[in-house]
Amino acid sequence: MMRFPFAAALLGAALVAAAPAIAVEQSTPATPQEEPAAATPDDGELSAFVAAFLRLIGVQHGYMMVMRDEQDPARLEEIKQSALMDMKSAVEQDGMTVDRYNQIALSVRDDPGLRDRVEGMLQQLAAEPSGPAPQADEE
Questions:
Q1: What is the pLDDT of residues 70-124, one digit of tens each?
Q2: Are 47 and 132 in contact (CB under 8 A)?
C-alpha cells in the first residue's frame, strides 16, 4: 500500500515545519555549540515524541487555516501567539519538554535510523483503527 511513502513524506514535511516552529517559542536562542549531544531517545520517549508530533500537525494546520484568511496585522500577531501557546501545550501534554522535543526532532531529521524508527511508529499508528493519541489524565 501507499502508507510507507505517505508516512515518510508526512514525517519529512512535518519535521521541517514543526521543529523550527517550536524553537521560535523558546525565549533564548540556542546555538549548536550550546547544546550538548542529546541522548538517543528510548521507545517511550519516541512514543511521546510521535504523539506530540501528531498533535502539533493538527494545531499547525488549524492555525494555518485561520491565519490564511486574516488581514489585520494585530489580529494575526494574536493568532500567532495563541498558536505558540497551543503548540507548547501539545508538546507538554505527555510530559515532554519543548527543549527535548526539539532535540529529538533534530535527531530524527539527521539520523536515518532514528527516522526509520519514528516512521515505523507512524505507520503502526496509521494501521490501528483506534487512532494515535490516547488522552492523558487531566487535572
A1: 899 999 999 999 999 999 999 999 899 999 999 999 999 889 999 999 988 988 8
A2: no
Out of 30-34, 51-55, 81-85, 124-128, which region has the weakest mean confidence (pLDDT)? Answer: 30-34
Record the cell numbers describing residue 83, joined without a space.
498558536
Give the HSE-up count for residue 138: Cα atoms under 13 Å, Cβ half-sphere. 5
100 or 139, greater pLDDT: 100
The CA distance from 88 to 97, in Å, is 8
Residue matched to cell numbers 484568511: 69
List of long-range contacts for 43-49, beta carbons under 8 Å, 24+ apart? 45/96, 45/100, 45/104, 46/104, 46/114, 46/117, 46/118, 46/121, 47/121, 48/94, 48/95, 48/96, 49/96, 49/101, 49/104, 49/105, 49/108, 49/118
Residue 7 near residue 119 (C-beta atoms within 8 A):
yes
